[in-house]
Amino acid sequence: MDELTMAKPDDTAKAPAPLPLSTATLSRLPEGIERPRYDRKALTPGIVHIGLGNFHRAHQAWYLHRLMQEGLAQDWAILGAGVRPYDSQMREKLLAQDCLTTLIALDPAGSSAEVTGGMIGYLPIEEGNAPLIAAMAYPAIRIVSLTVTEGGYFIDPATGGFAADHPDIRHDAENPTRPRTAFGAMIAALKLRRGSGAGPFTCQSCDNLQGNGEILRQTIVSLARLTDPDLAEWIEANCSFPNSMVDCIVPATGPGEIALAREMGVIDAAPVTHETYRQWVIEDDFCAGRPDWGRVGATFTEDVHAYEKMKIRQLNGGHQVLANVGEILGLQTIADCMAHTAVQPFFLKVEREEIAPHVAPVPGMTPDAYIDLIARRFANPRIVDTTRRVAFDGASRHPGFILPTVQDALASGAPVEGLALVEAFWARMCEGTREDGSRIAANDPHWDELTACAQAARERPMAWLEMRHFYGDLGSRPRFAEAFCRWLDLIWKEGAEAAIAIYLKG
């Protein structure tokens, strides 16, 4: 065909304008965006989820959505809930778009989007939590699940026991009908259910805690025992608290994520970006039934702890290996850390030599193979997972993710040099400045205490380890304490990269 007669593309043609996300616009979204094939009007609630952030929407809610796409689990829809005033902002955003969420999978090979619709309401957020209590008391609710962060379970970091002296716990003990916490609200609802004959519900933690179900049981039963011992006994005997392991890297949403959704044709006030990898391992202990999550990829097993230990120590612990030194060096994302010529080999050496030896294999995965898997996931440049997000609440994450490995290593005579260096980087970060002199904004519920101790530790490193409520007796364990003090002193004198270089030569 003559070139002059060939049809030419219209360079002035514009892409269709993005559509505001709602039930009414679902059918008009761009081709290629998967959307609910089920009738959302026919869904009925079976789950109340407290703490409705990005992770829940990209993970547990996604598994439920996949079941609904097969015409199943139509009576297990989710009611979202929160117990803090700031949750109201998310509620307003999601209600304005009919509780739909745009999930954007970020893979180095490209992006894809789908809209999920398994959530059908978001409960009003009020002081005293009356709407939440009433909803959980409704007989059709059979599961109450939570993502309230690792630090949200009122655990005494020194003992692992229940922190009965916390002001919020004292408030709920004195005001059981107007509780402040999610746990107080659950107890109040269970009291109503016991009285009405509606029966118990499953209490399901979806947070990154080893033995998260057992920890949730400890919190609920211990709080109930402060005001109503008979109710506490009924809860312990009748409710179930399955342990689970959850895994999917889900960055926070900012202007870039909202813009990406618009580029794909959707105006979503709270889209969620995520990696393509997901894992959910669950103990099959549900007192009032459950959706068939196993049909869409979840693993049910009696040995959740082995999966938990691998993930929490290697992935979550590995995040702390990277994030604290990343903040010190001004590296913006976890992918930036993995691209750094000193930080990546530091991460790999600590993982292979000091973390993996204390982790057992699980079906289909060895600790060394898991390191390779998470290294690829962390290095994905499409996942804009900030070091700041990962470093948040180190006061919960280090005792939960790093220090148990330190204890195991000391007990077995295994190396702790790299783990001590990890803790020294945390202390250096909490001083509040980067090596370029820029300020690190407060990033921990205990920031003032941590910063004061970190500043004192600049001259006297042991000041950091004297925080026994985080470190227990580790400050009196010479092999760890001496290594920590030596590393922190070196970091202040010669810098983070110099310390890593010495460790790598080791």
TrEMBL record:
Mannitol dehydrogenase N-terminal domain ranges (all copies): 46-293
EC number of the protein: 1.1.1.67
Pfam family, one: Mannitol_dh
GO MF term set: mannitol 2-dehydrogenase activity
Domain Mannitol dehydrogenase C-terminal: 303-489
Coiled-coil intervals: none
Keywords: Oxidoreductase
Database matches in Gene3D superfamilies: N-(1-d-carboxylethyl)-l-norvaline Dehydrogenase, domain 2, NAD(P)-binding Rossmann-like Domain
SUPFAM superfamilies: 6-phosphogluconate dehydrogenase C-terminal domain-like (SSF48179), NAD(P)-binding Rossmann-fold domains (SSF51735)
Disordered as annotated region, ranges: 1-21
Keyword Oxidoreductase: yes
Domain of life assignment: Bacteria
Protein name: Mannitol 2-dehydrogenase
Organism per entry: Pseudoruegeria aquimaris
Gene (name only): mtlK_1
